[in-house]
Design brief:
alpha+beta; 12% helix; cytoskeleton; BCAS3-like; cytoplasm
Length: 749
């Protein structure tokens, strides 16, 4: 273009990006990805891009060939979600089954045209192209979340949940703590639990654990915050004057007046997290107070001292990652529920992942599928990768160099008796202790100890992608093992990219199977185990420039370690392998519904709906009659449909016991010493008196079959080199008095 003088191709402006989970990549309910039907397929990456005018949906299958699924231009879009097929039963049917898949959109101009901007959610059918439902609100909408049970609409300081089958209001929350951004009201929606930032800490509902106590601020953070002291002091003086007089300055905004009135009425407490069960929570308003019961409340605990900025559940829903508005530390919690009340639930603080000393706003958090890696993306355009364990403890060679998740304790550690430490800790703390030794599980607090480890920073540039690795410290939760794994590499030069909106970059990241093989070998056929050649899944990052880059992660033992063992710390080697340019140009045609029956989104919706009907024992559309449980399993497991039940049932648990991994004397508590002869080397012979057993007839009988020289016991150094004999209780005389005295063993002994 520079040579020919033609202007560069114009591209549309990207406002937000997001990796989506829908029926197309649902590994649990899409039969295409089930093990009994698996042919080496992997779920595709589903990517949603929001532009200043419209939106776009991409699919990147395992072949690496990106496919555009949806594209429309109808004004700015604040949030959009592809709704998964709902969970149905004999008592609960899907009212929109014939219209699915559905697309939920919050745009500047709603379907009615009279509502304020971003105050309604329109549900469109991708099968027919018509709008099937419109949900109106009085206040602006900031985000949408959905799973197979509910659709969650996030408002300012409010949350409204709707049933996924009927889209009728199920429950709503009005006690959310406000956040300045980028997530105005941060929530985390798992497969069943919903976590949000509560504005108060209710002691009667508070769970055991969480993160309490002041974090130790480093010297660098103190120097950085020193420049803000004067401004903060003046602000505090103004607040004191306001509180004393009970009035606000004449130029105060409506938000300040509202915040001031709320402060006078009841002070808000930042950093509190409440987790509710969307299945058992009562309909109507969810209120956490001293007078309310704990029905549906899973946990209620303090997570930060500052307002919470972002939260995310892991795929299993047992781990929760939270971060505050400063963006220095990311807390990893393990949620252990109690069937009675939230006050008896345990919230174990597994890790505190430290990013740096400068402030940054977190916009995206994502786990790997095995929950051993977590990536956190900030508005600075940087993605940070941290190694963790789902059960806590030190990330090391044993835990992160294997393609599968390993147990917290190896078989060697179990047979060596090292689990007695955990048993002792459990007995001291009433059976609900933290999975890391020394970590307090009580709400009284858990001090944080600084550790050192590694993280990866992925910085984005305009049409250029590079990686920076730094040797920086980060914090683990109290009681975790010390890690020292600096990544020694020269930092890459940071080139300031062109800003998107107000100097901030929209970035999203996700883990997935490698697709770079297609870019390098487009003519080769993919092997079944090609995606399993790496220990860690590839990391896919898309920025506000519309460029999707695959980064290959290769953990290795620390190169500076003197000896490599199971406990050796890690270091990471990374490399960008493939790139896809997905940004839309003004010349691109729109791709709007109705779609054909062979559209990937429609095929996935039909497959998931059929699977849902089979599990519920209902009649799928087009079937002659009802389907039993046995028939539904046979239809799912067609490879085994010709076999009788007895053929596979007789093979269940045929192996009920396996031998020990190693013998007890191989443990570290046993030591073996070498016997050094004082004179020349001799060998025991069969005629030695020591090796002769005396029976009742006192007739010597040889025990060995070879003939060598006699061995004098006095010439051997029987006692260990460093040990001294110890008198045992009940002995007639000290052991030192019996040195060199031979003992005759009776044959009947």
């Amino acid at each position: 273009q520079a040579y020919s003088g033609t202007p560069p191709e114009e591209k549309e402006k990207i406002v937000w990006v997001r990796f989506e989970n829908a029926d197309l990549n649902d590994t649990s309910r899409n039969m295409e990805f089930h093990e009994i039907h698996s042919t080496g397929n992997e779920p595709p990456l589903l990517l949603v891009i929001g532009y200043s005018d419209g939106m776009q949906v991409w699919s990147i299958p395992i072949s690496g060939e990106a496919q555009e699924l949806f594209s429309v231009r109808h004004g700015p879009v604040r949030a959009a979600r592809i709704l998964p097929a709902p969970q149905i039963s004999a008592q609960k049917c899907d009212n929109f089954a014939e219209k699915r898949p559905l697309l939920g959109v919050c745009k500047s101009i709603g379907s009615s045209g009279t509502s304020p901007p971003y105050c309604c959610v329109d549900l469109y059918s991708l099968r027919t192209g018509e709008m099937v439902k419109s949900i109106q609100f009085k206040t602006p909408i900031y985000d949408l979340h959905c799973n197979k049970r509910i659709l969650v609409v996030v408002l300012q300081e409010k949350i409204a949940a709707f049933d996924s089958c009927t889209f009728t209001k199920k429950f709503f929350v009005t006690s959310c703590y406000p956040c300045p951004g980028p997530n105005m009201n941060p929530i985390a929606l798992g497969s069943r639990w919903l976590a949000y930032a509560e504005n108060k800490l209710i002691r009667c509902h508070q769970s055991r654990g969480g993160a309490c106590g002041d974090n130790i601020q480093s010297y660098t953070a103190t120097v950085i915050s020193a420049a803000k002291t004067i401004k903060t002091g003046l602000t505090m003086v103004g607040k004191v004057v306001t509180q004393l007089t009970g009035t606000l300055p004449s130029g105060a905004t409506e938000e300040e007046i509202l915040a001031h009135s709320n402060l006078r009425r009841s002070p808000l407490v930042p950093g509190i997290v409440t987790i509710i069960d969307t299945e058992t929570v009562a309909e109507g308003q969810v209120l956490v107070s001293e007078d309310s019961d704990s029905d549906g409340i899973v946990a209620h605990f303090p997570a930060h001292e500052k307002p919470i900025c972002c939260m995310a559940f892991n795929p299993s829903g047992m781990l929760l990652v939270t971060t505050d508005t400063l963006g220095h530390d990311f807390h990893v919690f393990q949620i252990l529920t109690h069937p009675c009340s939230s006050s008896q639930s345990a919230v174990h603080h597994l890790y505190t992942l430290h990013r740096g000393e400068t402030e940054a706003k977190v916009q995206d958090i994502s786990f790997s599928h095995d929950c051993r890696w977590v990536v956190v993306s900030t508005l600075r355009g940087t993605s940070h990768v941290f190694p963790i364990n789902p059960y806590g403890g030190q990330p090391c060679v044993r835990t992160h160099m294997s393609p599968r998740v390993v147990n917290r304790m190896s078989r060697f550690q179990k047979s060596a008796g090292l689990e007695e430490i955990e048993q002792e800790l459990t007995s001291k703390q009433g059976g609900r202790c933290s999975p890391v030794p020394g970590l307090s599980s009580s709400p009284s607090g858990s001090p944080l100890h600084g550790k050192s480890a590694f993280f990866l920073s992925f910085h984005r540039e305009d049409n250029t992608d590079f990686i920076k690795r730094e040797a920086v410290p980060y914090l683990f939760g109290a009681g975790c093992f010390s890690i020292k794994a600096p990544c020694k590499s020269k930092p890459a030069p940071q080139i300031s990219p062109s800003k998107s909106v107000g100097g901030e970059f929209c970035v999203a990241a996700v883990f997935g199977a490698s697709r770079s093989w297609f870019a390098n070998n487009s003519g080769l056929k993919r092997e079944k185990d090609q995606s399993k050649q790496f220990v860690v899944e590839s990391l896919y990052i898309i920025s506000c420039y519309g460029s999707l880059v695959e980064h290959v992660l290769e953990p290795r033992p620390l190169s500076t370690a003197p000896k490599i063992s199971d406990d050796t710390p890690l270091e990471m080697v990374t490399c960008p392998r493939a790139s896809w340019t997905l940004v839309r140009t003004p010349q691109w045609n729109e791709l709007q519904p109705p779609f054909n029956a062979n559209h990937p989104l429609l095929l996935a919706a039909d497959a998931v709906q059929y699977y849902q009907y089979l599990l519920a024992g209902l009649v799928p559309p087009g079937s002659p009659g009802p389907i039993t449980r046995h028939e539904s399993y046979d239809s799912l497991a067609s490879d085994h449909s010709g076999q009788e039940d007895e053929e596979w049932l007789s093979q269940v648990e045929i192996v009920t016991h396996t031998g020990p991994h190693r013998r007890l004397w191989m443990g570290p508590q046993f030591q073996f010493k070498t016997i050094h002869p004082s004179g020349q080397t001799t060998v025991i012979s069969s005629s030695s008196s020591v090796l002769q057993s005396h029976g009742p007839s006192d007739t010597p009988q040889p025990l060995l079959d070879f003939d060598t020289d006699d061995l004098d016991l006095n010439s051997l150094r029987i006692q260990p080199v460093r040990s001294e004999p110890v008198s045992m209780p009940g002995s007639p005389r000290p052991a030192a008095d019996r040195r060199g005295v031979s003992t005759v063993i009776d044959a009947s002994s």
